[in-house]
Specification:
The protein is an alpha+beta fold. Among the domains are: about 100 residues, no CATH class; about 130 residues; about 70 residues. The chain is built from 9 helices and 30 strands. The chain has a 4-stranded antiparallel β-sheet, with no helix packed on it. A 4-stranded antiparallel β-sheet has the order 7-8-9-10, with no helix packed on it. It has a 4-stranded antiparallel β-sheet with strand order 11-12-13-14, with no helix packed on it. Strand 5 and strand 6 form a beta hairpin. The two termini are about 75 Å apart.
């Protein structure tokens, strides 16, 4: 086997080639800097060597002649091919750089980098005919592409949102199909997405399923749109090669309000005018058909398109209608009359999306040619163009504030301003992205891809916000998953409550032990003070008694003559026998109490230390118990919150299960009511017919009576189910 590098040229020739190219580029830059690049001196030789064999006066491929300046400036069959000052916007430059169709030349490597640089410089410096000629002025749009103020057109009152809609899917599959259609309400957090035989409504804020709209007849949903007031959702549906129609539902009630069209193939694109009087649709028939919503009557059949109509949309005010086809044809029509207003040439592959700016003055189009183009509606001119997804743009949507979101075959989703500058992007998709739209407030964008994944992202930084299920489970499957989780949450909440109670009991016990230790310390200190005071008071009292006795005469003794001076008594000698006796009795007490006090004082530090140790232990126990209690309280609060969420979810889907039965009963009642009206009309007609046989009439009356009873019973069942449903919706307090 040959080496992977065997086919490469030797290193020296490659270096010479790179050197030659560098010299050529330097020469181009020098020429442009000195005298400018001209058609006659610089561009025409390139055309002569590479292009004029197919683009000359005798053979104008694509209607284009590049042999002379005048012929080249006249353009081709699709219009002008160069725009002074704008190489990126010039079709010629896109073709020769092979970023736009048709590529030139169709085979081979094409022009080299030096030649492309010459042509780019020539366009950007003003399309000079000769070096001494006058440069053409760069074209500028007639007005700014930016909105001065974003008109809202928001209807008064709360925006329409689903109320008590069916949540049971029509079809439950293990995996979702590729995303065919996606649309968001202009005013409410509501997004509609296609699913098998149904349209799913989701809350774009909470990401919860808000409603299921059945599509009768087994048709596929190929396009989705909301009415301008957000009240209706419109779906283009059908079965390929068999039938097609447009259906509309009231998003609040889920009621199908009309169905128009009798196509022989599926409807690929549909929209409702702002006044809701007209439905426009298109598909493989290559025609634009406009129907009156009130009568379902076809009021306009437009036969301009040459290929399948793949996209269409009314302007926000309904004045204009934009349509695009699989061949790149793009047209604008008067919304009421259907008369042609503009043909917008430029796209070279299928139109995948058309979307209007909020003020209706700018139309944006996207194509499989990879570009996004902006068109102004004063003269129908292109005012901006950029390559959004080189391998093909699949979807495009305007936000109220003028931003755009696009997705493409490159598996990328990008947010743009109106100058074509990318402001955010998300590239973490495993498959081709097929549809993208902003939420009602532009804070999020929703993306559907080929794998069937519907993802939601924050517009500010393209970070993930969550996913929506294009193949949601049945209510029974949801309940089977939720019920064990709710039971587990209930058990966890009960366990957390028991732990909390135990921790509170421990905290109370520790606090009581601490209080007891503190009381013990206080008692020891009080007892010590009392002993000290008693000892001092006892000594003072004894001394007072002895002093008093020593000064008092003996009882019952006669007065004595004045005695002669006697020698002084010894200091410890009692003054009298009685005093001596009292002294002998009292004198030991102060010393004994003093000894007791001293002994107590000596043991007090040990006792206080033991009590203080017990107090410290108790304080530690209190702190630990308080911490454990706080942790248990947090666990209980978390468990209670989880339980509340689980019980709320469980109650929601239990209510949805009841509502499914309620809806079925209401549908049955509607069938019975229609049958009653039919029987009543038949009986009334029969009673006026003299040829009618009484037995037949009696049979009809008997059948009517039976239907009346069935209606009565059905209404009772509906009342019962309705009461159950609303009771289930009432929030229940967690245990």
């Amino acid at each position: 086997m040959s080496s992977p590098t065997a086919s490469l040229p030797p290193a020296a020739p490659r270096r010479r080639r790179h050197l030659t190219l560098a010299i050529a580029l330097a020469m181009v830059q020098a020429v442009a800097a000195q005298d400018g690049v001209s058609f006659q001196d610089d561009v025409r030789p390139i055309f002569e060597s590479a292009c004029n064999s197919c683009h000359n006066p005798d053979k104008k491929k694509g209607g284009l002649d590049l042999s002379s300046y005048a012929a080249m400036m006249a353009g081709g069959s699709s219009g002008e091919i160069v725009i002074a000052g704008d190489a990126a916007g010039s079709r010629l430059y896109g073709c020769i750089t092979k970023t736009a169709e048709p590529v030139m030349p169709p085979q081979g490597d094409g022009l080299n980098a030096a030649q492309l640089e010459i042509i780019k410089r020539w366009i950007e410096t003003g399309l000079l005919d000769t070096r001494g000629g006058v440069a053409r002025k760069a074209k500028k749009p007639a007005f700014s592409a930016q909105l001065e103020a974003a008109p809202t057109g928001r209807p008064e009152g709360a925006p329409p949102m689903p109320e008590h809609l069916r949540l049971e899917p029509v079809v439950a599959t293990r995996r979702a199909a590729a995303t065919a259609a996606l649309a968001s309400s202009p005013w409410a957090p509501l997004v509609a997405l296609s699913s098998q035989h149904q349209v799913l409504l989701y809350n774009s804020d909470s990401l919860e399923l808000a409603g299921v709209l059945p599509v009768p007849g087994g048709g596929a949903v190929e396009s989705l749109a909301f009415s301008r007031n957000g009240r209706l959702v419109i779906a283009g549906t059908g079965i390929g090669g068999q039938s097609g129609q447009v259906m509309a539902w009231d998003v609040t009630t889920g009621r199908r309000v009309f169905e128009v069209g009798a196509e022989r193939d599926t409807v690929l694109a549909a929209d409702l005018s702002a006044d809701q009087s007209t439905i426009a649709l298109g598909g493989p028939s290559r025609r634009i058909k406009m129907y009156a919503t009130a009568s379902g009557e076809l009021i306009k059949d437009i036969k301009k398109h040459t290929d399948w109509v793949t996209s269409l949309q009314f302007s926000p005010d309904g004045v204009l209608l934009a349509t695009g086809d699989r061949a790149g044809g793009l047209h604008v029509w008067e919304g009421k009359s259907g008369n042609e207003y503009f043909t917008l040439p430029g796209h070279t592959a299928a139109i995948t999306a058309v979307t209007w700016r909020a003020d209706g003055n700018i139309l944006a189009s996207a194509s499989e040619d990879g570009t996004v183009r902006l068109w102004e509606m004063n003269e129908g001119k292109e005012v901006k163009k950029w390559t959004a997804h080189s391998s093909g743009v699949q979807s495009l949507h305007f936000a109220h504030d003028g931003r755009l979101v696009s997705c493409g075959r490159d598996r990328h989703v990008k947010v743009w301003n109106q100058e074509g500058a990318e402001t955010a992007s998300q590239k973490s998709f495993s498959d081709v992205t097929l549809a993208a739209c902003f939420s009602h407030d532009g804070a999020r964008f929703i993306v559907g891809d080929w794998s069937g994944r519907i993802s939601v992202w924050l517009t500010a930084d393209a970070s993930p916000a969550g996913d929506l299920a294009a193949a949601p489970p049945t209510i029974a499957q949801r309940l089977a998953a939720i019920t064990p989780a709710a039971t587990a949450a209930r058990e966890q909440a009960a366990a957390a409550a028991a732990t909390m109670n135990a921790m509170e009991a421990q905290a109370a016990a520790a606090a009581a032990q601490k209080e007891k230790a503190q009381q013990e310390i206080n008692a020891l200190q009080t007892h010590s003070l009392q002993l000290q005071s008693l000892a001092a008071n006892t000594r003072t009292a004894a001394e007072a008694v002895l002093s008093l006795l020593s000064k008092s005469p003996p009882p019952d003794s006669p007065p004595a003559a004045t005695p002669a001076p006697a020698p002084a008594a010894a200091p410890n000698e009692a003054a009298t026998p009685a005093a001596d006796a009292v002294h002998r009795i009292i004198d030991p007490y102060p010393d004994s109490i003093a000894q007791l006090s001293q002994s107590w004082s000596q043991s007090l530090p040990t006792r206080l230390a033991a009590a203080a140790s017990q107090l410290a232990t108790s304080e530690t126990a209190v702190t630990t118990a308080q911490q454990n209690t706080a942790a248990a309280r947090q666990q209980l609060e978390a468990a209670t919150t989880t339980l509340a969420q689980q019980e709320k979810t469980l109650a929601h889907w239990q209510a949805a299960e009841i509502n499914t039965q309620l809806i079925a009963k209401k549908e049955s009642l509607a069938t019975l009511t229609a049958k009653r009206e039919e029987l009543a009309a038949t009986i009334a007609s029969s009673e006026t017919d003299p040829q009618n046989q009484p037995p037949a009439l009696e049979s009809l009356k008997s059948e009517l009576a039976t239907v009346e009873k069935e209606i009565h019973l059905a209404q009772l069942a509906i009342d019962t189910e309705s009461a159950r449903y609303h009771a289930q919706l009432t929030p229940q307090k967690s245990p």
